[in-house]
Amino acid sequence: MPERTLMSAEDIQRALVRVAHEIVERNKGAKDIVLVGMQTRGVPLSKRLATTIQSLEEIAIPVGSLDISLYRDDISSLHLKPVIHRTDIPTDVTNKQVVLVDDVFYTGRSIRAAMDALMDLGRPQSIQLAVLIDRGHRELPIRADYVGKNIPTSSNEEIKVYVKEVDGEDKVTILLPNKGATDESD
To answer: Which of 169, 160, 179 shows the shortest CA–CA distance to 5?
Structure first.
């Protein structure tokens, strides 16, 4: 499948700065905000958002990581055993404004799993969602509060997010189906 770049490192940085400003504005400051990155690429994105918010508000923002592997609704249908990552949230989430951070928002099923996992850790005042990319195709009635970029896709395309901390570079690409391939949903 051919790959085309949709966002450069600079585009990603600009989107994250805008999202950080939106988080601060919606929450009337940064008090009681906890950023929780979803494994894997949501974790470095949440750390970058925290750095920007800290520079704006001069307040330390707790940042955690959340593994949803055991909360997925498709775990029984996965052919491979899920790789379990560490969940590490450095503060109690009860009565906090928790912002879940993920790289790509697609069906909503991962976010539902993340909300279930979060609720097992406490009862937040609110759970908000920040995503770098919203590609559409929702299967559940869940929406993002903060979106870096909306990229409408077909179901046979794939969005790939690369972050420096995991992949050695920052960019967003789309994998396009080969010419002559047909969409099975037609």
So the answer is: 160
- The H-assigned helical ranges of 35-163 are 42-57, 109-119
In 3-state terms, what secondary structure has residue 147?
Answer: strand
Residue 152 reports pLDDT greater than 50: yes
**75-120 per-position pLDDT tens digit:** 555 555 666 667 899 999 999 999 999 999 999 999 999 999 999 9
Assigned fold of 9-71+85-154 = Rossmann fold (3.40.50)
Q: Break the chain into its structural domains and give their ranges.
A: 9-71+85-154
In the block, which residue shows the tokens 């906890």? 34
Place of tokens 């960019």: 171
pTM: 0.90
What element of type H or E holds 132? strand 126-134
Is the confidence at residue 186, as pLDDT, over 80? no
Are 140 and 108 in contact by the 8 Å Cβ rule? The answer is yes
Q: At what angle do helices 9-26 and 42-57 cross, to 10 degrees?
A: 60
| Helical (H) or strand (E) element with 5 | strand 3-7
Using DSSP, state whether 119 is helix, strand or coil: helix
